[in-house]
Specification:
about 15% strand; seven-stranded mixed sheet; 2 domains; about 375 residues; 15 helices; single chain; alpha/beta; four-stranded antiparallel sheet; Aspartate Aminotransferase, domain 1; binds pyridoxal-5'-phosphate
């Protein structure tokens, strides 16, 4: 028998997750100096982690010989204060991606269906297929997530509905009224997984806590990988009804998140000034990119997060041309959007460089 025959069939149906290219890899492939390369491909924070988070992580590293508190008491307590929820309403994950997977462990089996939009975050589909469930994808309407269409795709077999707020890679979000109508329309056998990875950046992020309190089946996911600048440490969290959290806690490993990440995350939560600066810089950078794209006559989807989607024509070609010039962006062809390029908002200087290179690339095309 081959290994493939021996494998769980759900594993074999997994689409390959194509991450943003690491700087070192691009440097190797193109013979460029890594110091001259900028990465605007993975929606990372261009200002790095908060210095306070770095200091806390360094201190925690000295305790690396001890297992972390597997209950993550201190972090859950801090989050409970921040959100005015109970400590038993939080689960800590090895990135919020792990919590997506834990939702699969807890609630999916062959025959189940998961509803999501086309061109949504690939991990939703990955998790669905891993557990032998069936992804049901509904189309975007004018590049927006249409929630009545999403609700209409729910069947008696639906267990999870994935919704990004803002979505990735498209970058749009729905109004609080739209999301509330969706939640109220869901049958009792379906759980909304509300992915708020970029919510800190958004001007109007729906607050689903009242719906959770009212007994609706919702889990919200947050991450320290984006505005908090801790992507490499892998830490995120989910909040929901205590009964839902208790089930998902059963699916995780005892020490799923490392102590360095937890210490850094706790310090990051306290650094309000850093977060405020990143939000302000992101707004300014978004405007900088939008202004340039308008000038170039390039259509774009205004992003509610820290990235935007630009309709550049042949996305792969423009991606390659920019990469030759030391700028890594993200082609979104794997998401069924071959004409578009996803660009993370960088620092003012990084954006400037991208705009200059893009002008050159677009000109060379005609
Ligand atoms: C980045 C991102 C996440 C968070 O991933 P982590 O595992 O926390 O690093 C979740 N959802 C979406 C849509 C994202 O883009």
């Amino acid at each position: 028998m081959t290994f493939a025959e021996l494998a769980n069939q759900g594993i074999l149906t997994q689409p390959v997750y194509e991450a943003g290219k690491p700087i070192d890899q691009v440097a190797r492939e193109l013979g460029l100096d890594p110091a001259g390369i900028i990465k605007l491909a993975s929606n990372e924070n261009p200002f790095g982690p908060s210095p306070k988070a770095v200091a806390a992580g360094e201190r925690a590293l000295r305790e690396a010989h001890l297992y972390p508190d597997g209950g993550y008491y201190a972090l859950r307590q801090k989050l409970a204060q921040k959100w005015s929820l109970g400590m038993d309403q939080f689960i800590i994950g090895d990135g919020s991606n792990e919590i997506l997977e834990l939702m699969g462990h807890a609630f999916l089996s062959p025959g189940a269906e998961c509803v999501m939009h086309q061109s949504s975050f690939i991990v939703y589909k990955l998790v669905t297929l891993m557990f032998g469930a069936k992804p049901v994808e509904v189309p975007l309407v004018n590049m927006r997530q249409d929630l009545p269409t999403l609700a209409a795709a729910v069947t008696p077999r639906t267990r999870l509905i994935f919704l990004g707020s803002p979505s990735n890679p498209v970058g749009t979000s729905n109004t609080a009224a739209e999301v509330e109508a969706l939640v109220r329309a869901l049958p009792p056998h379906a759980i909304l997984v509300f992915d708020e990875a970029y919510a800190e950046y958004a001007e109007h992020a729906p607050d689903l806590r009242p719906l959770i309190a009212a007994g609706h089946k919702v889990i919200c996911l947050r991450t320290f990988s984006k505005i908090y600048g801790l992507a490499s440490l892998r830490v995120g969290y989910g909040y929901a009804a205590p009964e839902l959290i208790a089930i998902v806690q059963r699916a995780r490993q005892p020490f799923n998140v490392n102590g360095v990440a937890v210490a850094a995350a706790m310090a990051a939560l306290d650094d309000h000034e850093f977060v405020a600066t990143c939000i302000a810089e992101n707004r300014a950078g978004m405007l900088q990119l939008e202004t340039a794209l308008k000038k170039f006559g390039v259509e774009f989807v205004p992003g509610a997060g820290n990235f935007l989607l630009a309709k550049v024509g042949d996305g792969m070609w423009v991606f390659n041309e920019l990469q030759q010039r030391g700028i890594i962006t993200r082609p979104v062809k794997p998401y069924g959007l071959p004409e578009w390029l996803r660009i993370t908002v960088g620092t003012r200087a990084q954006n400037e460089r991208l705009i200059g290179a893009l002008a050159e690339v677009l000109k060379s095309r005609v």
